[in-house]
Design goal:
The complex is a heterodimer of chains A (about 280) and B (about 160). Chain A is of the alpha+beta class and about 280 residues long. In chain A, about 30% of the residues lie in helices and about 25% in strands. Chain A contains 12 helices and 14 strands. Chain B has 2 domains: about 80 residues, Ubiquitin-like (UB roll), CATH 3.10.20.30; about 70 residues, Orthogonal Bundle (DNA polymerase, domain 1), CATH 1.10.150.120. Helices cover about 35% and strands about 15% of the residues of chain B. Chain B contains 5 helices and 5 strands; from the N terminus they run E-E-H-E-E-E-H-H-H-H. In chain B, strands 2-1-5-3-4 form a 5-stranded mixed beta sheet, sandwiched between helices. In chain B, strand 1 and strand 2 form a beta hairpin. In chain B, helix 3 packs parallel to helix 5. Chain B starts with a strand and ends with a helix. The model of chain B has no long low-confidence stretch (mean pLDDT about 95). Classes of the chains: A alpha+beta (about 280), B alpha+beta (about 160).
């Protein structure tokens, strides 16, 4: 059995202090990635700081800035939150496609991005929504765009002593439909072989893709063709996605398969959001 | 380094105070310390659902939770579902519909189904599929399981 210290924190300030002062401190919210990772040797913790009941991290609200999802809010709580369902359903889809119902009773959106898997299902929708990550430390607070938060497989832009306090989905919300299309080996529980988010913003479109590079990426080539050059042939536009991605071969699929599936899913996403 | 912590919780309606080893999963704690072996160990990485229990009424994978996280919570395991020697109607429906062969996935399936019926008394097929999406049955009794869940909904 693994041996480490366990500290239950009900105070955000104390959690930041533990992070700053301790060595190999890991934050425990849902634990669904952390506990598997520790058992598999991916993380070696000396101290776990349990933050799931820190009041500031349980915030789930909408105000004039947008929707704030606290770091300890579970994915099931986010999925049924009316402002998310009504204003940014693409994010509800992304949350809903993580793991299984029982996993989503524990797993959090902040945990999903902090684990920094390029395949994180909430990431591609968050990229399309220009989400902001609110970061807290003993020194103070800062925010950064989600695209700057992902630094590589398993790596984030967090410095020592920093934690994600919440994720903000800013107003204005997109006008138009958004879809998250996921290819995976099984209908649930599995990670994405590729995950494609396509969000319409009025007459324009934003596209983000997971599991095809070291971090989630935007499909700028496709976006440019649609938004600037007015490309109406979605199959031709989707083909351009090859310039935006650099997938690898792993147990979920080969590089070639990923190239193919991304093109298919981008085309479908364009058809479903912009209309055939 | 603290090796053990004392936690207070409710298990199947009974209040308990117990020591728990830090680092022990809730699954191991339930089986090895509480001696409630109805909760099964399958994959231990949250993919199979054999270890599902209800924590504050919600189905969760006990292999992905630490025993210490049980502090202050209300735990229901498969042993706590029957009342006064009478099986829960989901349990009866599983028997009536032969919704298992080897039975290893059954405790997790029944608890996940129980939680579904508590939040949606009349679930659709889609609701049932979603609620049981994290519970694998290697014998392939899915059809019967879905029928059993539907039948227990109708029996209200």
């Amino acid at each position: 059995m693994l041996s480490y210290d366990y500290v239950k924190c009900n105070d955000l300030r104390l959690a930041c202090q533990e992070l700053e002062e301790g060595e190999q401190v890991y934050l425990l919210a849902g634990g669904t990635d952390l506990i598997v990772g520790m058992r598999g040797g991916k993380f070696s913790a000396k101290t776990l700081v349990d933050i799931k009941d820190v009041p500031e991290l349980k915030v789930l609200e909408e105000d004039d800035r947008g929707i704030t999802v606290g770091a300890a809010v579970t994915l099931n709580e986010a999925v049924v939150f009316a402002p998310i369902r009504d204003n940014v359903p693409i994010l509800a889809e992304g949350c809903h496609s993580v793991g299984s119902y029982s996993i989503r009773n524990r797993a959090t959106m902040a945990g999903n991005i902090c684990n920094a898997s390029p395949a994180a299902d909430t990431a591609a929708p968050l990229y399309c929504l220009d989400a902001l990550v609110n970061i807290k430390s003993s020194e103070g607070s800062r925010s950064m765009p989600i695209k700057d938060f992902f630094a590589g497989p398993g790596k984030t832009a967090l410095n020592k002593g920093e934690l994600v306090q919440s994720i903000l989905i800013p107003r204005p919300y997109p006008e138009g439909k958004g879809v998250y299309l996921k290819a995976s080996r099984t209908g649930s529980v599995d990670l994405a072989t590729v995950g494609v988010a396509v969000q319409r913003w009025g007459e324009e479109v934003k596209i983000a893709i997971g599991a095809v590079a070291a971090t989630p990426v935007r499909a700028f080539s496709v976006e440019k063709a649609i938004n600037e050059k007015g490309e109406k042939n979605y199959a031709d536009a989707a083909r351009l996605v090859h310039d935006d991605i650099s997938p690898i071969t792993d147990l979920r699929g080969s590089r070639e398969y990923r190239y193919h599936m991304v093109e298919v899913l981008v085309r479908r996403g364009l058809e479903q959001t912009l209309g055939v | 380094m603290t090796e053990k912590l004392v936690i207070n919780f409710t298990v199947n309606g009974e209040k308990e105070e117990k020591e728990v080893i830090i680092g022990q999963t809730l699954l191991k704690f339930i089986r090895d310390e509480l001696h409630l072996t109805g909760t099964k160990e399958g994959c231990e990485i949250g993919e199979c659902g054999a270890c599902v229990v209800l924590l504050d009424g919600k189905p969760v994978n006990s292999c992905l939770i630490l025993g210490v996280e049980l502090d202050g919570k209300d735990l229901i395991t498969i042993e706590g579902l029957s009342k006064n020697g009478e099986l829960d109607r989901v349990q009866k429906a599983f028997i009536d519909h032969a919704a298992f062969q080897c039975g290893y996935c059954t405790p997790g399936m029944i608890l996940a189904a129980r939680a579904l019926l508590d939040r949606k008394p009349n679930p659709t097929d889609e609701d049932i599929n979603e609620a049981l999406s994290g519970n694998l049955c290697r014998c392939g009794a899915y059809q019967e399981i879905r029928e059993a869940v539907k039948a227990s909904a109708e029996k209200k």
